[in-house]
Amino acid sequence: MAPVRTVVVSDLHIGAANDADLLRRPSFRERLSGCVAGAERLVLLGDVLELRDRPLPEVVDLARPLFVDLGRAIGDGEIVVVAGNHDHHLVEAWLERRMLDSAQPLGLEQLTDPDGGALEILAEAAAPARVLVAYPGLWLADGVYAMHGHFLDRHLTIPTFERLGVAMVERVLGVPPGGDPLAPPGGEEPVTPAEYESAQAPVYALLFALAQGTSRAGRGNPAEPSVRIFDALGGGPGPAARVRGWLLGTVAVPGAVGLANRLGLGPVSADLSAGAITRAGVAAMREVASRLRIDARWLIFGHTHRRGPRAEEAEWLLQGGGRMLNTGSWIHAPSLLGPTAAVSDWWPGTVAVIEDSEPRLQQLLDDLSREDLRRSD
């Protein structure tokens, strides 16, 4: 069977409140559509929608032109949407049903059709292309696996909101101090995606609910982890409230790192240099691959917005000898950009193209200047 030409793109964040999502602009959609034309499959590898800044219906309206353009570009091909952390809500109901079915444990690849809601609306906009949903990832070719990468937050040493949010969930759920619920004793059975979901999904549900203006009264059974973490982070005076303050950006980072470590929410580091952030993300993704036992020659992920690797970065290796690629983002973040694409690891516009089972990164916006990225259509 001839290989399927696949294009992978991640972290579009359509609906970002600061209007940094480049693919809302026709000129950038045109560039991506040109790359997609002729492909048989397009994989939108997570954080396609930004569901933490605006109500869901508004985000769907903003995303519809992109799906129209991509559907026309790929024709009767296939668009696979993989949920990430910022659009985890797209698979939340499906995941709940799936995880209640003990006969169908959550594996590395589940494919399903859009099941109502936002994805069904966007799938209609993408006609004639067929839209599928995958979670937590999918195999693209022999030895090539792709996932958004948000599971890496569990192992990250950079004090992001989600790193500490996940640690707080584990604390609320009764994980012993210093314990690691994802460490199988003696290398027995591999960790499952469901184990990552149990610690991380409540954080995503909380952030989505806040963006939609959901009241606490409507959050269901108070014993549910999502409600318990909501209460822990929003409680009165004390350590939980102090951590919540840091998570919302009201406490200085150096003091907050020390507090998080003392509370057993670490270990996290105060080194927030670009090199430290990159090394931490790569090491955390390697840990995910090892624990899930992803036996791949190539592992493609996004999530960190840091495209790569550069030719000299040898640490982007899996424990089994495979290699990792990151598809960066399509977000304009001026504070992260260097003067040109050549010296900026966070320059937007990266895609991965898979032909003959060998993925390669393409940079679709590297010919543009900072001013070009800033200027609106």
Write the layout of secondary structure elements.
Elements: E1 6-9, H1 26-36, E2 41-45, H2 56-74, E3 78-82, H3 89-100, E4 109-112, H4 117-125, E5 130-141, E6 144-147, H5 161-172, H6 193-212, H7 225-234, H8 239-247, H9 253-262, H10 274-292, E7 298-301, E8 323-326, E9 350-355, E10 358-363, H11 370-374
Parallel strand pairs: 1-2, 2-3, 3-5, 6-7, 7-8
Antiparallel strand pairs: 1-9, 4-5, 5-6, 9-10
Helix pairs in contact: 1-2, 2-4, 5-6, 5-7, 6-7
Q: Descriptors for this entry?
A:
36% helix, alpha/beta, single chain, Purple Acid Phosphatase, chain A, domain 2, 377 residues
Q: How would you describe this structure to a colleague?
A:
- There is one protein chain.
- The protein is an alpha/beta fold.
- The chain has 2 domains: 6-150 and 295-374, Purple Acid Phosphatase, chain A, domain 2 (4-Layer Sandwich); 159-262, no CATH class.
- Helix content is 36%, strand content 14%.
- The chain has 11 helices and 10 strands.
- It has helices at 26-36, 56-74, 89-100, 117-125, 161-172, 193-212, 225-234, 239-247, 253-262, 274-292, 370-374, and strands at 6-9, 41-45, 78-82, 109-112, 130-141, 144-147, 298-301, 323-326, 350-355, 358-363.
- Helix 6 crosses helix 7 (225-234).
- It is globular and about 50 Å long.
Number of beta strands:
10
Share of residues in strands: 5-15%
Low-confidence stretches: 214-252
Major beta sheet, specifics? Answer: 10 strands, mixed
- The residue-averaged pLDDT reads 82
N- to C-terminal distance: 42 Å
Helix content: 25-40%
Question: What is the number of independent domains?
Answer: 2
CATH topology of the largest domain: Purple Acid Phosphatase, chain A, domain 2
CATH first level of the largest domain: Alpha Beta
**Cα-atom radius of gyration:** 20 Å
What is the succession of H and E elements? EHEHEHEHEEHHHHHHEEEEH
The CATH architecture of the largest domain would be 4-Layer Sandwich
Number of helices: 11
Class by alpha and beta content: alpha/beta
Shape: globular
